[in-house]
Amino acid sequence: MRRCKKLTNTKTEMTEIFNTAKICPYSNQYCDLTEEGLDLYPELEDIMAKSTNYDELVYVWKAWRDASGAKMKDTGSFYGKRYKTLSAAVDHIASSSSHNDADIVVIPPDLDVQTDEDEIDEDNCATSYLPNDVPGEIEVHYDDDEDEDILPLTELQKKLVCRPSKRAKTANTKEVEPKWTENILDLKMTESYGYIDRLNNLKIEMTDKTPVQIFESLFDTEIFEYIIEQTHLYAAQKNNHTFSLPVEDLKIFIGILLFSGYHKIPRERLYWSLDEDVSVTIVSNAMSRNRFQEIKNFFHFSDNTKLDKTDKMYKLRSLMQRLNKNFQKWGIFHQNLSIDEAMVKYFGHHSSKQFIRGKLVRFGYKDWMLCSSSGYCYKFDTYCGAKPMKDTDTHDRSKSSLPLGSLVVLDLLECVSQPSDHVLFFDNFFTSYHLMQTLRERGYRATGTVRENRTKKCPLPSVNAMKKDERGVFNYICDETSSVLFVRWKDNNVVTMATNYDTIEPLSKVKRWSSAKKEKIDVPQPQLFSKYNASMGGVDLLDQAVNNYRINIQGKKWWWPLFTHMLNVSVVNAWRIQNLSCEKNTDLLTFVRSIARHYLRCFEKSSISKRPSGSVPVSIKKYEGGHFPAKNEKQLRCRQCHLRARWRCIKCDVVLCIECDYKSGERADHSMDPDTYIQTHTHTYILTYFYCCKGFDDMGELWKNDYENPDFEADIDALWTQVEPLYTELHQYVARKLKDRYGDKLDISDGLVPAHVFGNMWAESWTKIADLVRPFPELIRVNLTAALKEKKFTINDLFTTADFFYQSLGMPKMDMAYNESAGAVILKPTDGRDVFCHPSSWDFCDRKTFRLLMCTQFSYEDFLTIHHELGHIQYFMQYKNIAITFRDGADPAFHEAIGDTIGLSVNSAAHLEKIGLLKYHKDTDKHTINYLMDIALEKIAFLPFGLLIDKWRWDVFKGHVDEHNFNKIWWKYRMEYQKVKAPVMRSDKTDFDPGAKVHVAEDSQYISYFLAHIYQFQFYRSLCIVSEEYNPVTLIRPLHNCDFFLSSAAGEVLM
């Protein structure tokens, strides 16, 4: 069931990305999207339809895919490949050709009130294996020497559809090229020693303080009170208004957690066991097991009613900010600082490294750390994936060309008040030429290892060339412009170091084993390497200390490992402070024990007993994720109809009768407004996944089952074989016409036409280029939109006229579907609401509520679309009184075909004359050929696209297409069936072009449209014969000019 829920969440995320995607205009490609961003409907479709600027069409085509499909393709992952499941990440590592160590990094989940709890056994404290799943996404990080993700931030922003601030756009400073020299320059910078005063102040304040007092100077009263406040609030939100957490109980709770770090027992409950082999009286005497579990259940750090969904760490952000502030309360009191990443183990007391088929792997969250070289943490932040540059950044210019690691350095250094007091050290993930230059400009001395491709192409001998040299050989080069020195030294491996202040001499000697001499020899080492090795390991020292006595008790909440890590870091920091302040050093175990024993022994045992928890809150019951059916072991009473039922919702824990709920259409909350109903009840979707999990191999099999044909795929392929020759002739004809328009810019030498020149975002309809390709362009084409305006039609008239067509066939009126006062949306809202404008029809399953959603433009094209959408509404109304199981078309294509059939009649010259839009029509052969060409550009041109979308998805669902080849196979199908190609280079790594189509984003099948384009001509012919508007024997009137408007006989057949 959890997998089904994840599928639901994934579909919701993809839909949200599609519905909110915007791009900047071609004339202002770095606009503020909130002010100038263009929506797909109608702005981008209008550009694709009307523009003849080849370059503008390429830009819009690509930008839309970057804004929609590409964002569904893990472009949020700066650092590594993003995975939805842990098993997928493990499989990737196992099959990878890389021999480097890897990190499986858990990304905090997107926030809602339901993401607190994770599915683990929190009682098991001795787990030595990886969990089955994690609440958020996963990235795989390799310790490679090369990193593909070193694009400038401006490029990363393009991938994320984030634009620079207006201030950044005006900065048009030309970058100065480096001036390399082999002369050793004087790189000395201003040095100050204010950190000594800060250290002395710390020692004065902390001298003679106990371990508990030092710890509570960091994990202070304000933090304890904040935790109590938020825990009380969370308990109340869970309908437990009697829960109380005195500060004494909270400190006992903290003491038990710290105690578990050095006194490890396999299961949490055993700390309260009376068995002689596991009994721990200091714990059981301090607090009862039930009380501990009650506090743990309600333990919280944030208000769930005020979630900031842009911050994945919101659940812990306030605690993080308070701890960072307290870690820095005496300022930065060390000279040498190191910046690195630290792994926060996600699950259990397993080793920090796992072996997956012989490969060394760490698993957990990842923190960025600013530490002293001795291991005191000044600042930390948890990696949450992509974070665009803030508009409020005061260093836009210096950051604009920096990779992610360099940006992390600058963010961590915001807490440093006097740069000249300190020297920075970091590894090659962070270092770049531009970072060294920026740090020097700001007064920071810095040294770091650097990757070969981040040296600004400095003319040093290559790494491969130096691998042949003896150990101890080094080369150097200096940039006179930025005062940055690069040194490449051959040790066991070739290492490159960059510095903006240090130098090479004096050389030191290091011992290395010589396999030739069978003894250790002295190897010369440049000075900057010696200083780096002595000062870089601060984060590693902190990590080692934390891991020594890491809290052993687990929790179900996803953020629990991060919280316990913060608690451990606070203890280690307090220990570092004590050893700085006292003459005699204390070992860490003694320090931790002092705090734990104090909290467990200084307070009386909690007497507050476990209170019964309240009922499930209404906010949870109506959470927009829908309901999740599961089968009961025995029949119980349905909450709604009170009949016996075998089903219940495992989220709401309410018995529900699926038969009653879905066949009667009566719901306990059917009185809510339609917009809310759409958002909160996704029954069809939930049941789809429910049955997918229960009865079908994959979603494609479920979709195909609706057609009740075991040979469905074969029949579809045979149908395409029949119509493909007609499409091929149309394609070749249109390609020549397009070549005439665009000349040498359009390459069709391979028989494939770039997909952006057909007047449509997906090249599925070619009607917008009709004026270009009509065989007889000299014939004046009637502007039917102008004709509607001439007859003084309003938007509402478009709907009432379309409705009257159905009434003329003897069908009921449908005015409730487009009545704005009743809740229909027929115009794009102007009140700031962000509405997805793709035309759609809605049945609310209460036998009386049917609605249209459409941002109508005054055009003849939308006039036809209204006829089509009302066909769905009419279908809904015709079957409203039968069991809900049967409320659908004969197959999914019937629904689409009915509206299209009506459209063929409405678009005929005969009908347009009847309603006064066409006057003095001449039915000559030339006019007929032009008209049939228009039909072909709409109907025949669509067929291959209507087919290939689901053929691609069927292969994906079956697992025949590897996720790394999604885009490759997509374009294989488009070239094979549509005979079109991408106008620009596409990548499987960064692009997901199928996601640029709403039906893929919303997980809606598409083959029905292919079939509907076949069915509609069969339906149309039959209705024309029934209405006596066409006789296939006499052929007195051609079929294309048939109009069954006002025909009750046609209406009876349809009904």
From TrEMBL:
Gene3D superfamilies for this protein: 1.10.1370.30
GO cellular component: plasma membrane
PROSITE patterns on file: PEPTIDASE_M2
Residues of this chain annotated as glycosylated in UniProt: N819
GO molecular function: carboxypeptidase activity; metal ion binding; metallopeptidase activity; peptidyl-dipeptidase activity
Disulfide bonds: C837-C855, C1024-C1042
Cofactor comment text: Binds 2 Zn(2+) ions per subunit.
Pfam family, one: Peptidase_M2
Listed cofactors: Zn(2+)
Enzyme Commission number(s): 3.4.-.-
Residues annotated to bind chloride: Y707
Example GO biological process: proteolysis
Residues involved in Zn(2+) 2 binding: H868, H872, E896
CDD domains: M2_ACE
Binding site for Zn(2+) 1: H868, H872, E896
Family in the record: Belongs to the peptidase M2 family.
PANTHER family named among the record's database cross-references: ANGIOTENSIN-CONVERTING ENZYME
Protein name per Swiss-Prot or TrEMBL: Angiotensin-converting enzyme
Organism: Rhamnusium bicolor
Lineage of the species this protein comes from: Eukaryota, Metazoa, Ecdysozoa, Arthropoda, Hexapoda
